[in-house]
Structure formats: structure tokens, C-alpha cells
Write a structure and sequence with these properties.
The protein is of the alpha+beta class. The protein has helices at about 1-10, 15-65, 70-85, 105-120, 160-200, 210-260, 265-290, 300-315, 335-350, 380-385, 405-415; strands spanning about 85-90, 120-125, 135-140, 145-150, 295-300, 320, 330, 355-360, 365-370, 420-425, 435-440. Helices cover about 55% and strands about 15% of the residues. The strands form three sheets. It has a five-stranded mixed β-sheet.
């Protein structure tokens, strides 16, 4: 529990964590240095200065106790007290019940302790009324006397000046360290942006820079990106070639069947050929979904409306609903979004009596929703349904269409290339499946 709480307090970014690693040792060293060495040093100096003043007061008070009259003793000691910059007189008022000291006056603790232990007849001292003066009350044979002297004689002046200088120097050096640290973190951030963009289907210009380890990671990323792009290109070319080679014999078969007498066998073969052509188209769509497509600024409402109207011409069971607020143009890969939307509408019409398409927006996201009244997909199998070549027998009837389980996979890949996501849940209005294409704005 405590470790989880401590982890939540740590910065999430590399820059923040590295800065914390840099600052914490410096602050710790300054605190230890201030407490263990500097403060103890000033305490020792204060004790020595106060001890010297105590020796002077003990001599003067001893002379006063030995004199028959207080006035004669003060007059006799006046040249000495002037030389010592000490004012000595009978107490003009009551003695304070306790020593007076400010809370932050750390040197005053040692000063008062030394007076209390080494000065005979000590009653109280005032370090609070005037921070530049020390007023001491002592008991003598002639009554209570009040001694006043400069605070600099009993403790060092500006004892924390060194701490302030060290603190300012630490702040300046930490700021300079942050500047160097930012220059070291910038290449890592550039590498992270290039990797994130490549994960979304973008190919940003990137040159390795920074420390040798970061340069090595950058070169490894570039090599990996080149290999993946070559692999995608080779797979797309291979599938395109296979599709072209297979369409030629299929076309010959279709021409042969067109010259035969109509019958049930001929109709069944023509249906098989049509299904094979549909399968080839699905394979090509899945391959193109992983290829890099250029980004364009498009009107999402017009794009969705065009897809719905094109499908409605053949199947009028498709409806479209858009919010009244205008939608600003967005940077999208329209071919991928259109292909994903067409697959979702096709699934909705294949497994339900109708399809309802709606479009909503927020400050951060644009959502395209496709709902149907079909059997839906169980919650525990929705993640499985997004995988390529997966068909759910209990949720989807294979006899209703010629798909191969690529529709949802193509839609999810299209969303990943936009930094968005595909969400599946139950339709509250139609009772079937609700598929949502969520695109970040």
C-alpha cells in the first residue's frame, strides 16, 4: 500500500524522474552539511564568544560584590566597562520570569545555555526585544544588575549567510544541470514521437542524435522500420499478384459457365465464383489496411453520408443520423475509415434486418456508431472477434455471408493507424451489436 502510494508520487516522464534523481541527492547533502557541520560550527563559535563575555562579567561582578557601595564600584569600573562596550546598571524594572528568545534563533539556544551554566547569579536574558543587543539580569550583593552589550560579541553575525550562499549556488547549478538534462532527453523524446507515429501508420523524418546509447537505439529503430515497411510492401505485392493470377482463371470459368445451359449446377458454380472473388477482395483489403496511406483533411460528415447513401441505393435498410452541431474537417486517412465503415455496415446488414449509422463528437473525439438488430456478440468473445480470420459461430451464422472474419480486424487496424480504437457493445436502441469507431480529434 505504501509502495503504491510512493509510486503514484513519482513523475511519469523520464525528464521528471531524472531531475528528481539529480535534485534529491543535492538537497540531502545540503541538509546534512547544514545540520552536521555548519550549524555545529556556529554553535561552537557562539559558545566560545559567550564564554569570553562570561569571564569578563564574572570579573566585573566579583569586583562589585567586593565593593562596600554599588555606586563607587560602578564609577571605578566605568573605564573598563566602556572599553568592553558593556553597559552595567541597576535593573530598572522586574526581571523576566524566563529567557526571551525568538523561535528561529538557533544560536541563542547555545548562548543562553552557556550563560546559565557559567555565569554565577544569572537570572534571565533578553534576546528578543532588540535582536542586536543582549540584556542580562544577574543577582549581586547589592541587588539585581542589568548588563547590556552588542550581540556580535556573543555570537557570530549573520550565521546563516553561508547557508544562503550555498543554497543560491545550488539553485544556479541545478538550473544549469536541468538545461543539460533537457538536451539529453530531447533525442529520446524525438525517438518516442517517431516510434508512436510509425505505430499509427505515419513515417516521420528522424535522424539519430544525442548520446551514443540513444543513437544506437535510433539506428535500431530505423532498421526495424525499414524492415517492417519492406515486409508490408512485399506482402501487399504478393497478395495483389495472387489476386490477379486467381482472377484470370475465375474469369475464364465465369465465361465458360455463361455459355452453358442454365441450371442448378451452373448457378451453384457461379455463386462459388462470386464467393471466391469476395474472399480475394477481403484479403486485399486486409493487406492494404496495414499499408501507409497519406493523411488528408476531410469532412467526416460528408464522408460518412457518402458511404451510407452509396449503400442505401442497393439496400434501403441503412439509416443515418448526425448531430446538428457542425463538425470541423479532420486529418484522416479516408480510404481506411471508409473501408472500416463499409465493413461494419456490411456486417450489420448481413446479421441484422437493418443498420443505423450515427455520428457524434466531443472536444477530444469523433465517434461513428453502427448498430444492428442482430444476435450480437457475447462480451467474453468481443476481443476474439477483432482478430483476423476469426468467425464466431454462435454469434454469426456463416451461411448468411461469405466473409472470412476480416471485417472487424480491418476496422480495428484502421482505428489503430489513427490513434483511435474500435469498441463493441450491445445496442440499447436496436438490441443487437453496436460498433463504435472512435477517432481522436
Amino acid at each position: 500500500m505504501v509502495s503504491h502510494w510512493l509510486k503514484s508520487l513519482l513523475p511519469r516522464g523520464l525528464y521528471g524522474r531524472t531531475a528528481l534523481i539529480l535534485v534529491v541527492p543535492i538537497v540531502t547533502i545540503q541538509i546534512v552539511l547544514s545540520i552536521v557541520f555548519i550549524q555545529r560550527h556556529f554553535d561552537r563559535v557562539t559558545q566560545q564568544l559567550t564564554g569570553a563575555v562570561v569571564l569578563e562579567l564574572r570579573y566585573i561582578l566579583g569586583r562589585i560584590d567586593a565593593a562596600p557601595e554599588l555606586g563607587d564600584a560602578l564609577a571605578e569600573l566605568d573605564p573598563l566597562t566602556r572599553a568592553l562596550r558593556l553597559e552595567l546598571a541597576p535593573a530598572p524594572g522586574p526581571v523576566p520570569p524566563a529567557d526571551l528568545r525568538r523561535v528561529h534563533d538557533l544560536a541563542g539556544v547555545v548562548l543562553l545555555s552557556t550563560l546559565r551554566e557559567d555565569l554565577p547569579g544569572y537570572l534571565a536574558a533578553d534576546l528578543q526585544t532588540d535582536t542586536r543587543q543582549v540584556v542580562i539580569w544577574t543577582d549581586t550583593a547589592h541587588g539585581v544588575l542589568q548588563a547590556s552589550l552588542n550581540r556580535n560579541r556573543m555570537s557570530p553575525s549573520n550565521p546563516h549567510q553561508l547557508l544562503v550562499i550555498v543554497l543560491l549556488a545550488t539553485i544556479v547549478m541545478t538550473f544549469i544541470s536541468f538545461l543539460f538534462l533537457r538536451n539529453q532527453v530531447r533525442p529520446i523524446r524525438r525517438l518516442a514521437r517517431a516510434a508512436e507515429a510509425f505505430g499509427k501508420g505515419q513515417s516521420l523524418r528522424y535522424y539519430p542524435s544525442g548520446a551514443s546509447e540513444v543513437r544506437a537505439a535510433g539506428r535500431a529503430f530505423l532498421d526495424m522500420r525499414d524492415r517492417i515497411e519492406r515486409q508490408i510492401e512485399q506482402r501487399t505485392l504478393m497478395l495483389s499478384g495472387v489476386s490477379h493470377d486467381m482472377r484470370t482463371p475465375l474469369t475464364r470459368m465465369r465465361l465458360t459457365l455463361s455459355m452453358m445451359e442454365p441450371g442448378e449446377d451452373v448457378a451453384a458454380l457461379e455463386a462459388d465464383i462470386a464467393e471466391l472473388e469476395t474472399l480475394l477482395g477481403s484479403f486485399l483489403d486486409f493487406a492494404r489496411a496495414h499499408s501507409v496511406v497519406e493523411v488528408e483533411a476531410v469532412d467526416p460528415v460528408a464522408m460518412v453520408r457518402e458511404v451510407v447513401e452509396a449503400r442505401r441505393e442497393a439496400q434501403p435498410r441503412v439509416t443515418f443520423d448526425c448531430q446538428e452541431a457542425p463538425v470541423a474537417p479532420m486529418a484522416l486517412r479516408p480510404l481506411l475509415v471508409v473501408r472500416a465503415l463499409e465493413n461494419l455496415i456490411g456486417n450489420a446488414l448481413r446479421y441484422g434486418a437493418s443498420a443505423h449509422v450515427s455520428l457524434t463528437q466531443s472536444d477530444t473525439e469523433l465517434t461513428i456508431t453502427v448498430e444492428d438488430c442482430g444476435p450480437g456478440i457475447p462480451p467474453e468473445r468481443r476481443a476474439e472477434a477483432k482478430r483476423p480470420f476469426v468467425r464466431l459461430d454462435s454469434a454469426r451464422n456463416q451461411n448468411l455471408g461469405g466473409g472470412v472474419g476480416l471485417g472487424l480486424a480491418i476496422a480495428e487496424d484502421a482505428m489503430h493507424q489513427h490513434g483511435g480504437r474500435l469498441e463493441l457493445d450491445n445496442s440499447p436502441a436496436l438490441g443487437g451489436l453496436r460498433a463504435r469507431l472512435i477517432l481522436p480529434r
